[in-house]
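hey so i finally got around to running the thing on that chain from the lab meeting. sorry it took forever, my laptop kept dying and i had to restart like 3 times. anyway pasting the input first so we r on the same page abt which one it is
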Amino acid sequence: MANIYFKITFKLFDGIVVKPTKFYCKCAGFVFSLLKPNWFTWNKYSEPMLRTLEKKIFSILKVPYRGWFVDIGPVVGPADKVWTISLNTESKKTPLVLLHGLGAGVGLWCLNLDAFAATRPVYAFDLLGFGRSSRPTFSTDSLEAEQQLVDSLEEWRKEMKLDQFIFLGHSLGGFLATSYAIRYPDKVKHLILADPWGFPERPQDLRDLPLWVRALSTVLTPFNPLSGIRAAGPIGPWFINVIRPDITKKYAGAIDESLIPNYIYQCNSQAPSGESAYHCMMSGFGWAKNPMVNRIDQLREDVPITLLYGSRSWVDHSATSVFKQKRFHSHFKLKVVPGAGHHVYADKPELFNNIVLECCAYADGDSTQLAIEDKPEDEVVSPTKYVFTSFHSDTDKHHG
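ok and heres what got predicted. didnt touch it at all, straight out
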């Protein structure tokens, strides 16, 4: 390979195509010739291990659950399958469907499932291209990749024979759940967005953002966001614990602290299928090329939205005021959870669960929510920012 260094294009750093210079191609050819034959022994992905880790994580659940692969047919690949779990499917209440964010899987909902399933059917699944689901090759066009993912959601719904459901999406899951609701408003009874990614326009000036967000936005732009996990090989779980020790701490006391970094590693040490789709949809790490704020007015007015986020989240929430303006004649609630970060469902699970259950009760018509102005202490609100009626938008702050 080292001799064939001109007029070639090859994949470098986890699936990103580059056209190297002669010098870099010579060097990379030599290194790849050493590493590539041993890739599968270096990268310690194991489907049985991922299955075992998930079972151990779910051993804390009190409500029985079922897990299986749902065959959604040739949506992106020739035969796509979506790993799905369900709880309390005998209930006649409106089902709650959970959609995780980038690099996650169904296992990370373990602190929420019992509370949700106590009152209604609950379904969670690994998004196509993530976790235990199939890993097809998505389009490199941002809008087409998004559409492929939305198509996979609808095909999953058809296979599950769900007429209407409450859709809860976190981060990337919130972005896709909103895109789905715009296209299929009859199916979504309430849209719950937990610290959603990809809503505002990317700011021209990034100086007001945390340093680490600016660094990631610059450094990760050419690469798949989680390529470092795969590059770490067998020390991947340790690497995850070093760069994100807070994730393990979120689950401390509930499960063995070694399970979460190992689970995240197994979810992301596979071929970066959904992650590559995310990469082509992103504009810098924290923003989307096609932000949702520019099309939220396409969502039918009668679809209720609850937006909730952690007061310490790094995600850009600047689109909130625009949402409220564009959804003025719709049900829109903003919930801020003090002390929680981006992973609000794990940072403050009891508060998060209560908010979601409140939304579910509203969707079922079991509660009447009045708009009460309770401005978060950490949010600057102008006197004319919010207009209230008995069904219009409002802002609540939940205290522990």
